[in-house]
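Q: Got a minute? One more chain.
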Amino acid sequence: MSLRRILHGIILQLRHCCWCRQAEAMETITFSPPLYKQRYQLVVELVEKLQARKVADLGCARCTLLSRLKFCSCIEVLIGVDTDLELLKENMYRVSPLPGDYLQPRPSPLSVRLYQGSVAVKDPRMLDCDFVSCIELIEHLDAAELARFSEVLFGYMNPAVVVITTPNADFNILFPGVTQFRHCDHRFEWSRSEFQAWCLDIGRTNAYSMEFTGVGVGPAGTETLGFCTQVAIFRRDPSRAKIKMKNSELPYKLVYEAVYPSLQNRKILHDAILNEVIFAAECVRRSFIDIDTGGQSEWRTCRADGEECARAAFSPEVSGPSFGGSPEVAGCPELSWSPEVTKIGAQLHIPVSTFFNNPRIRQLSDSLQQLQEVLQASNRVKLSHCGSSVLYPAGDEN
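A: Always. Here it is, folded:
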């Protein structure tokens, strides 16, 4: 085992001890939901409200907030920055695509990047952010780092919106075990007046307006102490936005990058359409068998191309919601029977227009013509000679 890993393990143990002491000191007050979840929820709701497209979390640590932000459909670029390389490597799985992301691709693209770097250092890849979060970060910076941090974030990065959270020192009186700071790694903890004075100075210097709020309500009768966590929401004055010159230096180290599957990719879009068509066809097959054996419909026999043919003539008494005046297909309420669905031999002939009536398939396909072109270009489905129907195995033994 390398010396670096040994030292990293010792640091983690010390951090764990700090968190244990902090938890013991704060166990007299509980928050529901837990305080960290309230902080993250505030950020997620604000990102969704603002429809931010490029979002960065500075001091992302275990990537917990990033793992929630990746589900915001508006985000196209998601960035996490932290100084702890090992911590990023251990937690980068949290922002990796899941199997469901391939089964249900996003409508818009998403790239997630994790960087090792200092928030007090300029990197041009952090420019053009719509939203930046700094959750319980600033109290871990010494005075020199804090000064550089505010200049880098507000003077250089110049994002449209910034959210900063930090402990409210006024609230610490409610924690009997806290003698100085809530965490052993904190360099300071500000009162509300100190925090607001720092924020107002940033706003005047960099043309930002701000709103002060917080999360974590104390017991009844302690309202004058404010929230446990104080929050500042900065909004850049658009008329005074600065134009930045990008430098060629890239001091941050890229630790991980993931590109999520998106319907903007032509191949992924076509695969999604085909998956929906095959699923819908299977729903038709199952309902065809159920109706054939359940006596809910009248069957007429005819001759088609020399083979025995069965065609469903639906009874108006068939129950269940309908689409276009015909009963829904079991297991797939969006796809309803068409009187034109026929069984010839061992195959079902399902008109392409029937699939286009499915809201999900219609959403993915711009037109019936595009749907037909996707089906014709694929070997995953079989079409009739004229291309107007999908041929799908009936799959019944009768």
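A: The first strand starts at residue 54 and ends at 58.
Q: Perfect, thanks.
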